[in-house]
Amino acid sequence: MKKLTDPMDSLDLTNAKTLPMTEDVTEQNSTLLKRFFSIFAAGPVKPGESYGAPGQGKSLAISLFTTFTLLFVWHIATYFQLVKPLFLPSPISVIQRFWEVATEGFGNATLLEHTGWSMMRVFSAFFLALITAVPIGILMGVNRIVRGLFDPIIEFYRPLPPLAYLPLVIIWLGIGEVSKVTLIYLAMFAPIALSARAGVKSVAIEQIHAAYSMGASRWQVIRHIILINALPEILTGLRIGVGFGWTTLVAAEMVAAQAGLGFMVLNAAEFLVTDVVIMGIIVIGIIAYLFDMFMRYLEKKLVPWKGR
Amino acid sequence: MSRLQIHDVSVRFPGMNGGEAVTALSGINFQIEPGEFVVALGASGCGKTTLLNLMAGFIQPSEGYLTLGDSGISGLPRVACGLELKDQITGPGQDRGVVFQKHALLPWLNVLDNAAFGLKLQGVGKEERNERAADFLKLVGLEDFHNHPVYQLSGGMQQRVGIARGLTNDPQMLLLDEPLGALDALTREVLQELLLEVWQETQKMMFFITHSVEEALFMASRLIIMSPRPGRITHDFSLNFNKIFLETRDARQVKSMPEFIEMREKVLGIIHGDEAENGGAH
């Protein structure tokens, strides 16, 4: 199958012609190569977009290629012992470790328990942020007094790294679950509140005018126009917020945790069990990625009109 | 029968960065009689949209007042005492429907729900509001599109929804702020005819802003021409090309009548005169 739009194809054909080989082999090689490269083709160009914005087309195959190349390089580097296992254990030993921690546990808890604790912390913080940061962000958008009250607080602490105020949170709230959830909650609060506020501000004045001229009250304008209009940005804020939550998890589990993915990683690092460290990182990454996929799916279902 | 009256209205906007205040409208005296189709035409910055926003109640006059109702203008002493006149326009209300240039529909609602949105705000039950919205969607030719998301419609169809939405509240007048300005020439002519049919059917007062001289002459039973700096009404013509169209249903013939062409040249002359005065500045 030849696509006119694929530069790889034409390149490949000219190469094949200049190769000093027999007719048959050339043909075979070129189709094999073509097949291989066609995996990475951009796909058919949409009509009228031949001179469209740069960067269009499919990229999934290339992403998979990157992933497998990285795994392969990792495997080669460890297989030929180019790096000591202390610094970089092999993928296979990480997978073995995964199974071992999943069944027997590490640091007095199984992988499921570690994951459960971490998810409990991140998602209770997320839930708290959802029911507080979203309303406060919306109120900041529609009410100047609330905006005046919260703006300096949020703008001041937002750029601070959570590690900087972790000691204070521990002094105030102790070393139990409350301080861990609070730390994650604080990291999530600012981006969620600010995106809710930005969502409120993004509403078109014509839509508000239209509602008023159809007899809407102030409250109806907020409920039927502003809130729904802010939904896409609120969802984006929630995605960013959960991302910050996972970022902060390890910091939160630094002090006096008995279980948790962050705790597991830190504990393993202390005993130089590098394969558990890498395994923990990968588990956190995969959970965060899956949740992000879920949020994107939710976005597609809830706000199909986004950007229209 | 109610009419819209504008009495000695001026609008001044505070200057930017402490600059001089801008007089957007000055000394407007004007009324729209029941059943009139009034078109406002003028160079950019002449205050057409400000005038529409006043009628809609989105802004308040710096001086003077507007009323919409069956009472004549009286009761100046009440205004002097800071009291409201009977029927005075003090804010937006459902007695004045507005159609915007950028349709301003709600993309999360389908066509029917958009058209019925005003009734929903009034607390009208679902069945009744859908029935009433369906009547007006039929009037604008969208009876087969009730469940379509509005963001999938063409510009012309979106504007049809906008018109239906403006009508479902049964307002006394419809304010149209360049509603056809963003449409292609063919769709635009179709919607001009549609609007005239809607006008004939509903007998509402219409206030319609446009930049197109031909559109203005074709649509208006009364044409006002405005001039900038300060914004004011300089000409006021009574026309009947719209009635001729509604009788003959032949838009091309109306637009090529010698009287139409003569009027077009005259109005163009007035507007170009204004623009030359402004150094052609836009």
UniProtKB/TrEMBL annotation, chain A:
Ranges that cross the membrane: 60-80, 122-142, 163-188, 271-291
Family annotation (CDD domains): TM_PBP2
Location(s), subcellular: Cell membrane
Keyword Ribonucleoprotein among UniProt keywords: no
Membrane topology: Multi-pass membrane protein
A Pfam family assignment: BPD_transp_1
The keyword Membrane appears for this protein: yes
SUPFAM superfamilies registered for this protein in UniProt: MetI-like (SSF161098)
Record-annotated ABC transmembrane type-1 domain positions: 115-295
Keywords, in A-Z order: Cell membrane, Membrane, Transmembrane, Transmembrane helix, Transport
Classification via InterPro entries: MetI-like, MetI-like_sf
Protein family membership: Belongs to the binding-protein-dependent transport system permease family.
Name this polypeptide is given: ABC transporter permease subunit
Origin species: Marinomonas colpomeniae
Automatic annotation (TrEMBL), chain B:
Family: Belongs to the ABC transporter superfamily.
UniProt cross-references to CDD domains, sorted A to Z: ABC_NrtD_SsuB_transporters
PROSITE patterns reported for this sequence: ABC_TRANSPORTER_1 (PS00211), ABC_TRANSPORTER_2 (PS50893)
Single GO MF annotation: ATP binding
Domain of life: Bacteria
Chain ranges of the ABC transporter domain: 4-253
Entries under Pfam families matching the protein: ABC_tran
Sorted UniProt keywords: ATP-binding, Cell inner membrane, Cell membrane, Membrane, Nucleotide-binding, Translocase, Transport
Protein name listed in UniProt: ATP-binding cassette domain-containing protein
UniProt-listed InterPro entries: AAA+_ATPase (IPR003593), ABC_transporter-like_ATP-bd (IPR003439), ABC_transporter-like_CS (IPR017871), ABC_transporter_ATP-bind (IPR050166), P-loop_NTPase (IPR027417)
Species assigned in the record: Marinomonas colpomeniae
